[in-house]
Write a structure and sequence with these properties.
The chain has about 300 residues and is α+β, with helices and mostly antiparallel strands. The chain has helices spanning about 10, 50-55, 60, 90-100, 130-135, 200-210, 300-305; strands at about 1-5, 25-30, 30-35, 35, 75-80, 85-90, 105-110, 115-120, 145-150, 155, 165, 170-175, 180-185, 225-230, 235-240, 245, 250-260, 260-265, 265-270, 275, 285, 295-300. It is globular, with a radius of gyration of 20 Å.
């Protein structure tokens, strides 16, 4: 996905084949949307889309999961060569009224350059009127809570949290299946392709922002558990020896962070992501290099038995 703030790091770090001379900000790795869908790369289901698997073989591939029109998660790689706009995603009650989709998300910082920042919530209590005044007088950035990012940081972003990703961050983003973003401030930049500033969505954003969200913290891991929410459960594993990716009958999504691993004779290196089907017999994740680590993603129906 071309983005004004993107770069070439998905190519240099993760060996993605990118179109030349283009700023690429996002790679949608696990996706089931009308405009994009993941496709099975090999094996007996080669060529099938994620949407076809979800609608035609849900029990076999995903196990006992809630029936929704589309696979409920969207997983991306993000390369922020420049900082993203200050933005918010709508909570469910507001999303319907505004004609958008609710979106709660999770960030894992795969790499952070020295000085890279995360912009999360407000550093002090602020009212909607005070925020609107700051937008008008150009001082809105002064009110945002900033955290110096480092590799391995994890962030939970509930819908309604004002946020922006700072320059120099390479992320894995795990989110609700949504593509609704309301930009409230874009650092006064213009898009080189058009010479114009990008559209803002100030009124919609003001209806979504949680103005009581003051100084949110990074996630503090509870052992291997990073976050457990009704939308997703995410664990980080240091894979020192072979280990079952999930119990038989439950699917999982595996994101390689460092080192390399294999499952059922399929290899995975950093930046690669696969879906472990509920029906797969050989479920062992095997490290193939020292200091192999991964993110393991499930949805609640699949994690309750763990």
């Amino acid at each position: 996905m071309r983005r004004i703030w993107g770069g070439r790091r998905l190519e240099s770090t993760y060996r993605k084949q990118l179109p030349p001379n283009t700023k690429i900000g996002e790679s949608w790795e696990i996706v089931d949307r009308p405009e994009a869908s993941s496709v099975v790369a090999g094996g007996p289901l080669k060529g099938k889309t994620l949407h076809e698997l979800w609608t035609q073989q849900r029990q076999t591939i995903f196990g006992d999961v809630a029936a929704t029109p589309r696979f409920p998660l969207l997983i991306k790689l993000l390369d922020a060569h420049e900082k993203l706009s200050l933005q918010v995603h709508p909570p469910e009650p507001v999303a319907g009224r505004l004609g958008g989709e609710p979106k709660t998300e999770f960030w894992y910082v795969a790499e952070a350059d020295p000085g890279a920042e995360l912009f999360l919530g407000f550093h002090d209590q602020i009212t909607r009127k005070e925020f609107e005044d700051a937008l008008r007088d150009g001082t809105v950035a002064d009110h945002i809570h900033r955290i110096r990012a480092k590799t391995g940081d994890a962030v939970f972003l509930p819908a309604g949290r004002l946020h922006a990703l700072g320059a120099g961050n390479l992320l894995i983003e795990i989110q609700q299946n949504s593509d609704t973003t309301y930009r409230v401030f874009d650092w006064n930049r213009t898009d080189p392709a058009t010479g114009k500033r990008r559209e803002l969505h100030i009124e919609q954003a003001l209806d979504c922002i949680d103005f009581n969200d003051v100084a949110p913290a990074l996630i503090k891991p509870d052992g291997e558990l990073l976050v457990k929410h009704n939308l997703f459960e995410i664990q980080k594993w240091n894979l020192d020896e072979p280990r079952e990716g999930s119990p038989f009958g439950q699917f999982a999504i595996i994101c390689c962070l460092t080192g390399s691993l294999s499952c059922a004779d399929v290899g995975l290196v950093p930046g690669e992501i696969f879906l472990l089907p509920a029906c797969l017999q050989n479920r062992q994740l095997k490290p193939r290099a020292p200091e192999t680590s991964l993110l393991r993603v499930t949805i609640p129906n699949c994690s309750d038995a763990l």
